[in-house]
Fold:
Amino acid sequence: MNKITTKPNQLTILSPRFVSLGLNPHKLTQFISLATIDLRDKILPKFGKNDREQVIKEYGELACILARFNILPDPINQKAYILPFSKTTGKKLSLQIGYKAYIQFAEKSGFSLNTQIIYSNDEYNIDLASSIISHKPEITNRGEPIAVYTVAKKSGESIIEFMTKDDMKEVKAMVGFTGKGSPWGSFEGEMWKKTCLKRCIKRLDLSGTDIELVNMVDDKLGYGEDNIKVVDEVLDTIQQPELKNQTQKLQEEEGDF
Structure:
């Protein structure tokens, strides 16, 4: 018990790295606080004593990715989730970028994004050829989810991405890890929205923006990927070798991470 309550405080060792990745002093305090609570209360209690050192190390790696994109490690805001694995991969934790993070970054690029799930009892009319959609959700008994759509708007123009339940089954089948402990097992509705959003985003002109980088990170992470390698590839993409070198130097100095 003592190890669970004291070890997460070692995340403060990463403060210089978080600052180098873009967190200002106010956001740094908030970030460290939320990360410590998340790690101490939700992550570590799910692991045995022998796993905790690796879990804390991996959590620090994943937190660096969130710091780069100024996303708080707070599942309540539905922008990112650090989750325990429940399958053998060698990795203990998984990072999932939430669909609300995609919406946030699209707005910074001048796009408004709206994604909704259609249920069998909802009223809806979709005209993909004309990029028109009418959707009126049923209030009391919506039935089963049957489709999901995303509408992207900018300068009066609209782009609609539409996916059916069968489309989602195909995506889910390709993931491979969809049982208990996976995002598809615990947050399937949000994964429907995120999948549709990501497909829509690839049709937008977002080259060089943070949303494109977020998409790249999310695609590369997968399950069991090398988290530090992903961070390095992101830093290479945004062409900041001095930031990458600074991050690597801090990593060597900090040792535990």
Notes: The radius of gyration is 20 Å. The longest strand covers residues 145-154. Strands lie at 80-84, 93-97, 112-119, 123-127, 132-136, 145-154, 157-164. The chain is about 50% helix and 20% strand.
